Amino acid sequence: MSRLFLGLGRITVLIAVVLAVISVFVLKDESASAAVGEVMVQTGQRVAAPPADSRYISSGVGRTLVTSPPDWDPVVLDEIRQLTFETESRALLLFRGDDLVFEHVPEGRGPFPVASISKAIKALAVARLVDEGKISFDDRLSDTIVAWQHDARRDVKVRDLLSHTSGLSSSLGSMVGAPGGIPGYHLGAYDVVSGVVAAKAGTPFVQFVDEHLLKPAGGQGLVWSRLQDGEANSASATVDDLAVLGQLVRHGGFAKGGEVLRARTLDEMMRPHGQIARGFGMGWFMQYATDNALQWDIVEARGGSGHMVTIVPSTQALLVRIQGQGSNTGVPERFHALLRRL
User: Fold this and answer.
1) Residue 309 lies in a domain
2) Is the dihedral of CA 325, 329, 335, 338 positive or negative?
C-alpha cells in the first residue's frame, strides 16, 4: 500500500511540473499579445509599430506625423514643417513617393474649396476622353459649342483653351488674340469644359469625373459648385483625393488598380504651350528654378493664392496644401524653394 501512495505522489508531482511549464508559456504569450496591443491608433485599430525614425509632434492645433526619409535632408524637412505652421495652412500632406512623410490636418481632411485646382481636374477629365478616343486635343471646340461656329471662335482648339492660349476675351464672347498665341491666364475659359466633356462622354460631367478618373485612381468623390446654366464650375475636395490625383500624375497615369491615363497623354499635357513656351501646360503649370533655366523642375496645379498640388520629380516629392486664412503672397514659392533642397 505504501508503494501505491508513493507512486501516486510521484505522478502528482509530475502533473504539477507539467502544469507549471504550461502556465509559463501561456503567460509569455499573453505578455507578447499585450506588447503588440500597446501599438494602437486612437480608433483602437491594431496597427504595425511605426519605424524607429517616426515621431508624433503636437502643433497645438492638430497632430502631425513626421517620418524622415534617409535620403532627405531632415533640416529642410523641419523647415517645411515650420513654414506649414507659420503660414497657418489649413491642411498639408507631404509624400516621398507613395510614403506619407508629413501630415498636418488641424481642420480635418475636408472637403475644401480648391478654386482653380478645378481647372487641373477638368484637364485630366479631358485627357481621359482623349484616351477613350472621344475627343482630341486638336479638335475645335466649335464642333461641340454651336454658338462658336459662326465667328472667330470657331478655330479655338481644345489644347488652346486648356493651355490658356485661346485668345478668348474675358467674357468668352469674342477674340482678343490668335489661338495658340501668347499664354495669358484666363479665369473663366474653363467654364465651358464641363459641358464639352459631358457632350463627348454622353454622361454628366460630375459622374464622368468620379467614375472614369477619380475612383479608378483610388479616390472617393468631389463636390462641385454650379454655374447658372447648371454646368459644374469649381470643386471641393479632400486632401486625400487631391493626393490621389497628384500621385496619378506622378506615376504617369498609373494607380494601384492599373492604368487610368496614358503616359503619352500626360506627357503632352505636362509641357509648355504657346508662342512663349514656358510655364503653361494644359491645366497644369511648369515651374522653373531660375528665370534662365531651360527645363522645368516642378509641375503643379494651383488654386487661389496658395492651394497646391505640387510634384518634384527629382526628389519624388508630392505636396498637397490648402491655403491658410492670412496672406499667401509668395508662400507657394517658399515651399518650392524648400522642396528643391530636400
Assistant:
1) no
2) negative
* Residue 313 maps to a domain: no
Contacts of 227 (CB under 8 A, 6+ apart): 191, 233
**Rounded Cα gap, residues 81 and 66, in angstroms:** 9
Indicate whether 80 belongs to any domain.
Answer: no
Tens digits of residue pLDDT in 229-263:
667 789 999 999 999 999 999 999 999 889 999 99
| pTM strictly above 0.85 | no
Q: How confident is the model at residue 317 (pLDDT cuts 50, 70, 90)?
A: very high
Examine the domain organization and report whether 4 and 147 are in the same domain.
Answer: no
Contact 214, 222 (CB under 8 A): yes
Nearest in space to 318 (alpha carbons), one of 218, 234, 251, 262: 251
How big, in percent rounded to 5, are the helix, strand and coil portions of the chain?
40, 20, 40
Q: How many other β-carbons are positioned within 10 Å of the β-carbon of residue 56?
A: 9
Amino acid at site 179: P
* pLDDT of residue 87 exceeding 50: yes
| Domain extent at residue 253 | 116-303
Counted domains in the chain: 2
Is 308 inside any structural domain? no
Helix (H), strand (E) at residue 74? helix 74-86
